[in-house]
Amino acid sequence: MRNDTPPPVMKSVTTKLATACGAIYSTLCFDEDGKLVGVLARLGRAGSCPSATIHALTTVITEALRGGVDPTPIIKDLK
Fold it and tell me: Under 8 Å CB-to-CB from 46, ≥6 apart: which residues?
């Protein structure tokens, strides 16, 4: 079942990864049960094509997670 309403407070973990295109900051969001429910990412340089691609990718991943998709295959494919 899809849950469109995120809780008012969510636990999250943000990491910084250095890449050739600049730093990528990724945030994993978890619900009260510790289940991954959202992914946010930001490339250090806003407004670039890679930045837009990262935003689109994380939006699709978050929609899949909210729709109940198991994140394991997504993580495996993106490694």
Answer: none
Give per-residue pLDDT as tens, 28-58.
Answer: 999 888 989 999 999 876 677 888 889 999 9
Q: CA 24, 70, 34, 59 torsion: positive or negative?
A: positive
**For residue 35, which amino acid is it?**
K
Put simply, whether the predicted model's pTM sits higher than 0.85 gets the answer: no
CA atoms within 13 A on the CB side of 53: 5
Phi, psi of 13, rounded to the nearest 5 degrees? -130, 130
Average pLDDT over residues 69-77: 91
